[in-house]
Design goal:
This protein is of the alpha/beta class. The protein is built from 11 helices and 15 strands. The strands form 3 sheets. An 11-stranded parallel β-sheet has the order 1-2-3-4-6-8-9-11-13-14-15. A two-stranded parallel sheet has the order 5-7. About 0% of the residues have low confidence. It comes from Favolaschia claudopus.
Length: about 375
C-alpha cells in the first residue's frame, strides 16, 4: 500500500513538472509570435518603399536601352559570340523588360558567329536552332554570317538558304570544298564582302550567285581555284595560302582592283603579268615561300603604296642578292604615283632612304 502511494506521488510530481514546462514553452511561443508580428508590421512600410522605388536603368526609354545594347556588341559586321556572357542572349536573361527590348531590336541579332568551340554536346544540334532564332529575330536587317568549321558548314549552309534572298551582307564560310555551296544558288543582292576557305579542290569552279554589290573578297587555300566570281566589279581582293599561278589567273580578271593582299606559294618567276591599272595598294604578307619574284607578275601604273616583309628587301643568302634591286625596279615601273613603302617584320631600319632613293615615305614595322 505504501509503495503504491509513493509511486502515485512521484507520477504526480512528474506531471506537474511537465505541465510547468509546457506553460513555459507556450509563453516563449507567444513571445516569438509577438516578435514576428512586430517584424511583419515593420516590414510592410519598407516593402512599400522598395516596391515604389524605380531603378534608374529601368526608367530609361526603351529606345535608349536598345541603343546601349547595340554598343554592347562588337562593331558590325564583326559578330558577338553565339552564347555566353558577351552574347545578346545574355541581355535577354536579365529581366522580362530587357528580354522584350532585346527581342524588339533586330540590329542586335544581325551578326552571327557559328564557330563555337566551347559549346557542349553536338554543336550542330545547338547551332541550327539558335541560327533560326537569330535570323528570325534580325527582322529585315542585312546580316553578317561567320561559319568557319569544315565539318559543320553543310548544315549551316542549308539553314541559311531560306534567308539568302534578304541577305547576307557579309559572309565568311569555311568548308571542305565548293561543292558544299550547291544550295547557295539564289541571288544575294546585298552581299558586299565575301570570305571563303576550302580544304579541298573541285574540278569545275563553283559559280557564285549573282551579287551586284560585292566589292571585297578574301579567298584562302583551295577557294582561289574553286570559285568563280564577278571579278570585274571587285575593288579589294585578298588571296592567301595559294599558288601564285592560280592567283595570277584570277588577278588578270580583276582589272578594277584598288587594294590587293597576297600570301602565296611561288614555284618560279611568273611568265605573264596581271595588268591592274587602278591598283593603289599592294600588300605582300610574310609566310608561305613568297619571294620577290612575285612582283614581276604585276603591272600597276597607279600604285601608291607597297607593303613587303623585310625578307624581300634584306637578302640573307647569296641567292637573294638582287632582291633590293628587284624591289627598286618594280617601284620604278610604277611611275610617279608611287609614294610609300612599308617594310613589315623589320629587325632594323638601316636600309633607309639610300636603299630606295625614289620613295618619298619609308616606314618600318617591327611587329
Amino acid at each position: 500500500m505504501l509503495e503504491s502511494l509513493e509511486a502515485d506521488r512521484a507520477f504526480l510530481a512528474q506531471k506537474l513538472q511537465k505541465d510547468a514546462e509546457i506553460l513555459d514553452l507556450k509563453a516563449q511561443i507567444y513571445a516569438l509570435e509577438q516578435s514576428i508580428s512586430a517584424l511583419v508590421a515593420a516590414k510592410k512600410p519598407v516593402q512599400a518603399r522598395l516596391d515604389a522605388y524605380k531603378y534608374p536603368v529601368l526608367t530609361l526609354p526603351n529606345e535608349i536601352v536598345s541603343e546601349i545594347f547595340l554598343h554592347f556588341l562588337p562593331a558590325y559586321p564583326e559578330p558577338p559570340p553565339l552564347v555566353g556572357l558577351l552574347s545578346p542572349l545574355c541581355l535577354s536573361y536579365v529581366c522580362r523588360s530587357w528580354r522584350g527590348i532585346a527581342q524588339a531590336t533586330p540590329a542586335l541579332w544581325r551578326a552571327i558567329d557559328l564557330t563555337q568551340t566551347e559549346m557542349g554536346g553536338s554543336r550542330m544540334e545547338l547551332c541550327v536552332p539558335l541560327l533560326d532564332y537569330w535570323l528570325s529575330s534580325s527582322g529585315g536587317c542585312p546580316i553578317s554570317i561567320h561559319a568557319t568549321d569544315y565539318e559543320d558548314s553543310a548544315p549551316v549552309i542549308s539553314a541559311l538558304t531560306p534567308y539568302l534572298s534578304r541577305g547576307p551582307e557579309h559572309l565568311k564560310l569555311t568548308a571542305k570544298s565548293a561543292s558544299q555551296l550547291s544550295d547557295m544558288e539564289a541571288p544575294m543582292p546585298l552581299l558586299c564582302t565575301l570570305h571563303l576557305r576550302f580544304s579541298e579542290s573541285v574540278a569545275i569552279p563553283h559559280i557564285f550567285p549573282d551579287s551586284p554589290l560585292l566589292r571585297a573578297v578574301v579567298l584562302e587555300d583551295y577557294a582561289v581555284r574553286s570559285i568563280s566570281l564577278p571579278w570585274l566589279q571587285l575593288t579589294s581582293l585578298t588571296l592567301r595560302d595559294a599558288f601564285f599561278d592560280d592567283c595570277l589567273s584570277v588577278l588578270q580578271q580583276t582589272t578594277n582592283l584598288l587594294h590587293c593582299t597576297l600570301l602565296v606559294w611561288i614555284q618560279s618567276a611568273p611568265q605573264t603579268e596581271a595588268v591592274l591599272p587602278s591598283l593603289e595598294t599592294l600588300v605582300i604578307e610574310r609566310g608561305s615561300n613568297s619571294r620577290v619574284e612575285v612582283l614581276s607578275g604585276f603591272n600597276t601604273p597607279a600604285l601608291r603604296c607597297l607593303e613587303l616583309p623585310e625578307a624581300f628587301v634584306r637578302p640573307r643568302r647569296a641567292l637573294d642578292a638582287d632582291c633590293l634591286q628587284a624591289v627598286n625596279d618594280f617601284i620604278a615601273r610604277c611611275g610617279c604615283n608611287f609614294q610609300e613603302l612599308r617594310v613589315t617584320h623589320a629587325s632594323s631600319s638601316v636600309l633607309g632612304s639610300r636603299a630606295f632613293p625614289s620613295v618619298a615615305v619609308i616606314t618600318f614595322d617591327r611587329e
